[in-house]
Specification:
It is built from 8 helices and 7 strands, in the order E-H-H-E-H-E-H-E-H-E-H-E-H-E-H. It has helices at residues 19-22, 29-45, 54-64, 87-98, 116-129, 147-155, 170-178, 194-201; strands spanning 12-15, 48-51, 71-73, 103-107, 135-139, 162-166, 182-183.
Length: 205
Amino acid sequence: NLCSLRTDVPTLMVIHDLAYRHVPDGIDAVALAYYRYFMPRFAQRADALLAVSEATKQDVVEAYGIPAAAITVAYNGVRPRFRELSPKQVATVRERNTGGEPYFVYVGSVHPRKNVDGLLRAFSRFRQNTSQPHHLVLAGRFAWQAGATRAALESSPVRDDIHLLGYVEEEELGEVIGAATALVLVSHFEGFGVPIIEALTAGVP
């Protein structure tokens, strides 16, 4: 989402999303001011623009008045480490992360836009209203404004069945996703949503 305003070198700018326009409350005040001032200038300055989704492309057209024909869409890809696991591999990963229990997995940083506090409340209701044994695994670091998420976590009646892995290295992440029953991603806004295609590539809904 950045480019130089001063260089004479031809510049291709990749735009992942305009999240600052959709969920400004979830962005640090200094960063928000920076995006609001510079993003339109970056987009106008770039010699070529690439968006990672049709949704982001349309956002750029509407926000900055750039013709749609000037923006190329190139979707994010999936690294080879995301693949279907064998039943034995699934059992091993589950034993390591949840004591062998099946689980749902969330992948991403923890801050307001990701709605993880809502996910935690939903998971608590799921466990209270069904007989399913599933746990919840959160793979990602706590970022800014995570107070509501921490509160939802500590007040959850099924706190013992929620596992915080923190930041997970890419090699291990393929296993964590591949052994899940399903990926859960309930963000308020995404420009693309990379974890979704990572999970689908691993045969995980």
